């Protein structure tokens, strides 16, 4: 830890793949929305890596309540999804239950929303 009382790390993982929803129409894009529900704040890292270990995406931002001068919602639009799977990783340094809400809007090539996944459908690892 970093010495701040009660803070620890939560890690969410999900493999992004065109057949991740098992729908007839393949997933081509995903929008990631992260929302904060508490009155504290957290650092959030969102990364994407492919099978050969290459980093595809990297976002680092602070999220939290308005009186910390933070955004409550952060959206990353239009990440590419294909038949070559990649691993989405969301890491936050504050994991009190239900404080970080994640929504993954999975869309077709034509922008139609095929399904929405939440943090409950991601694998959660914590140290």
Verbal overview:
The protein is mainly β. The model has no long low-confidence stretch (mean pLDDT 86). The relative contact order is 0.35. The chain has strands at residues 10-16, 29-36, 41-50, 55-64, 73-80, 86-92, 100-107, 113-118, 123-126. Helix content is 0%, strand content 54%. It is built from no helices and nine strands. The protein has a five-stranded antiparallel β-sheet, with no helix packed on it. It has a four-stranded antiparallel β-sheet with strand order 5-2-7-8, with no helix packed on it.
SSE map:
Layout: E1 10-16, E2 29-36, E3 41-50, E4 55-64, E5 73-80, E6 86-92, E7 100-107, E8 113-118, E9 123-126
Antiparallel strand pairs: 1-6, 1-9, 2-5, 2-7, 3-4, 3-6, 7-8
Count of alpha/pi helices: 0
Q: Helical percent range?
A: under 10%
Low-confidence stretches: none
Element order, helices and strands?
A: EEEEEEEEE
Q: Which structural class do you get from the secondary structure elements?
A: mainly beta
Shape: globular
What's the gyration radius in Å?
A: 15 Å
Distance between the termini: 10 Å
Main sheet properties: 5 strands, antiparallel
E-strand count: 9
Order of strands, main sheet, comes to 4-3-6-1-9
What proportion strand? over 45%
Average residue-wise pLDDT? 86
């Amino acid at each position: 830890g970093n010495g701040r009382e009660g803070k620890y790390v939560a890690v969410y993982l999900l493999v992004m793949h065109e057949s991740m929803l098992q729908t007839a129409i393949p997933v081509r894009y995903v929008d990631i929305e992260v929302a904060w529900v508490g009155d504290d704040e957290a650092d959030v890292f969102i990364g994407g890596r492919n099978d050969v270990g290459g980093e595809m995406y990297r976002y680092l931002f602070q999220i939290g309540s308005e009186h910390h001068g933070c955004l409550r919602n952060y959206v990353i639009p239009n990440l590419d999804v294909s038949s070559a799977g990649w691993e989405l990783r969301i890491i936050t340094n504050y994991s009190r239950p239900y404080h970080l809400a994640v929504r993954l809007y999975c869309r077709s090539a034509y922008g139609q929303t095929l399904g929405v996944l939440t943090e409950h459908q991601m694998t959660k690892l914590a140290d």
